[in-house]
Design a protein that fits this description.
Elements (H helix, E strand, L loop, with lengths): L1 H16 L6 H15 L2 E7 L5 E7 L4 E21 L2 E18 L2 E8 L1 H8 L14 H4 L1 E7 L1 H7 L2 E8 L6 E8 L5 E6 L2
Parallel strand pairs: 1-4
Antiparallel strand pairs: 2-3, 3-4, 4-5, 6-7, 7-8, 8-9
């Protein structure tokens, strides 16, 4: 008889504990799924966050004075969006403008400003480039990665050589060009291949 009471007690406990309620774990999982389905979070990041300006003013031993000014274009930017776990990460990479001024012995030989559109035209970045080419999206996605005066080459050849690099953010390929300005102020771009 004692065994029968134990058996009935176990059955009563078993039936009452299986009343169909959700476990805490299942309820939490369903709540998170519902939240993710109904809500998205958007995180905007601007790179650089604020206006940036960099000036280089160099006098070379061959009489050239080179001024390069680089500044953030606060209006034009390249936007990359990535979604992970219902969070939209929006990275806004700002374009850069640059100005190059060359003087020799106090006489201004060259003074020109460059923005993204002008660089697209000069470097041949356009939308009709074959998609197999590494620069096929450079007209819309590439940003100024680097600009610097090649002092050694400039002194050696009595002309100014400024190396300019454009790249798409978070990609490996960099497109290098050299702006050559001779002692008469005549300029041309040379594409470099590495």
């Amino acid at each position: 008889m004692k065994n029968g009471l134990y058996f009935i007690l176990i059955l009563v406990i078993g039936f009452t504990s299986c009343e169909g309620r959700k476990s805490q774990r299942k309820a939490l999982t369903e709540s998170i799924s519902s939240f993710k389905k109904d809500n998205t979070i958007k995180i905007n990041e601007f790179i650089p966050e604020t206006y940036f300006e960099h000036r280089i003013d160099t006098i070379l031993s061959n009489g050239f004075r080179v001024k390069i000014q680089t500044s953030t274009d606060m209006i034009n930017q390249v936007v990359f969006t990535k979604t992970k776990d219902n969070i939209d990460y929006v990275n806004n990479y700002r374009n850069f403008n640059f100005n190059v001024t060359i003087e020799k012995n106090g006489k201004k030989l060259f003074d020109e400003s460059f923005n993204k559109q002008k660089v697209n035209d000069l470097f041949g970045y356009s939308s009709d480039i074959d998609s197999e080419e590494p620069i096929h999206d450079f007209n819309t996605l590439a940003l100024l990665k680097s600009i610097h005066l090649n002092e050694e080459l400039s002194v050696k050849n009595d002309s100014i050589y400024i190396d300019i690099a454009y790249a798409i953010p978070n990609e490996d390929y960099i497109d290098w060009h050299t702006l050559k300005i001779d002692k008469h102020g005549k300029s041309n771009f040379i594409q470099l291949t590495y």
